[in-house]
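Fold this sequence, please.
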Amino acid sequence: MTEFSAFDTGIIVTMIVAYILFTSWLTVRLRSRSAEQFMTAARALPASVIGILLMSEFIGAKSTVGTAQEAFNSGFAAAWSVIGASIGFLLFGLFFVRRLYNSGEYTISAAIAQKYGRSTMMTVSLIMIYALLLVNVGNYISGAAAISTVLRINLPLAMCIIAAVSTIYYVFGGLKGVAYVTVLHSTIKIIGVALILGTALYATGGIRPMMDGLPPEYFTWSGDIGGPTIVAWTIGTIGAIFSTQFIMQAVAGAHSAEEARRSTFYSAALCFPLAIALGLIGVASRFLHPCLDSLYALPVFLQGMNPLLAGLVTTSLVASVFVSVSTVALAITSLIMRDFYVPRFRPTPEQELRVTRLISLVIAFVPLIFVFFVPSILKLSFFTRALRLSISIVAVVGFYLPLFATGRGATLGLLAAAVVTSIWYVLGNPFGIDNMYIAAITPLVVMAAERALGSQKKTVAAH
C-alpha cells in the first residue's frame, strides 16, 4: 500500500481546509436567528431537504466506516446494518410519522408525554441523551479513523478537530443551517463512496475474484453474522428510527405532515444503494488487505488514489462526520433545553437562544472522554439502537394500545430496559442472546406486569 508524499498530503489538507472554511461560512450565512429556527427551522423545510438530512443523520460516519469494518470481518451481510434503515424509514413513513408530526412537538420525549405524563417524559429524555452521547462517541472514532489515515495524525488529535469544527455547524446553524448545508455534505459523501467503490472493484478485478478468493460465507445473506443478529439489527434500526430524537426533530421541520411523510420515503430510497456499496467495499478490503486493522477497511483505499481524488473522498468522509456529529449534538441540546431548562427557568426567546448555544459547546466535547473505551463501532451503534428501541416499544404501545399503557408502567419499563440492556451489552450478550431482544422484551414485560398488578389491586379494593 503506497503512502502519500508530503506534497500530496498538502493538496488533500488544502482541499479539506477549503471545504471546512466554505461550509462554515455558508452555515453562518444560513444560521438560525431564533430558538424556533434553531430547533425546528421554523417548520419551513421542504421534503427533499429533510429526506437527505434523515439519510445523512442515520447513515453517517459511524455507519459508513462501521459497516465496511463489519463487512471486512463478517462478509457482505454487514450491508443489512444499512438496509435495515431503508426498511425502517419506509415503515416509519407509512405508520408513524404523521402521529409524531401532529403531536406538535419537536422532541420524542414531549410527544410521548402526551400519552404517559411528565415522569415518563423525563425518563425518555435521559435515556435518549445517554444513547445519543454514545452515538457521538462512535461518530468521533469512525471519523477520526478516516481523517488520521490521510493526514497522518494520531486519533486523539483527529477527534479534537472533529469536535471543534462540527461545533461551528450546529452552534451557529441550528436545524435550519445544518439541514441546508447537509445537502452539500451528502452530495459530496455519495460521490466519495462511489469513488471508493470504483477504486475497490478496480483493484480486485470485480466481484468474481473476491467470490473465488474469500470464504463462501462472505457472500451469503447472513455471513458470519448469523440470522438472529441480522434480525436483531433490523428490529433495532427500525425501532431507533421510530424514536430517535434527531429523526423526530428533522420531520418536525417540515411544512406539513404529508411533507414529513414524503421525506421518509426519499430517505428509504437513498439508503439502499449505500448499503450495497459499503458491503462491497468492506469485502474488497478483506480480499486485498487480509491483515489490516478492520477499522481502516474503508479509508485504506484512499492511499492508492490520485491525490485530488483522495482529497475529494476524504472531504466526503469529513462531511459525513460533521453531519453525524452536528445532528446528534443538536438533538441532545434540544432535549436538555425543551425538557429541563425551559420548564425550569422560563427564559425569554433571546435568553433561550443564548443558553442553547452555550450548552451546545459543552456537548461537543463530552464524547471525547469515552472514545478510548469502545472496541467495535458497529456493536456500539447497535447497542445505542437497542436503547432507542425500548423507547419505540413504549411509544407504539402509547399511540396504538392506550388501554394497556400507564405512566408508571412506561417509566418503570424504560428504566428497567436501560439498565438490563446496558448490563447485557457489557457482559457480551450472554447465552448468544443479542441485547436488542432484551431491549425489546424488557419494557413489555414490565408494563404488562405493572398493568396486571394494578388491575389486581383495583379488584381487591372493590371487594
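Residues 190 and 252 are 25 Å apart (CA to CA). The chain has one domain: 6-377.
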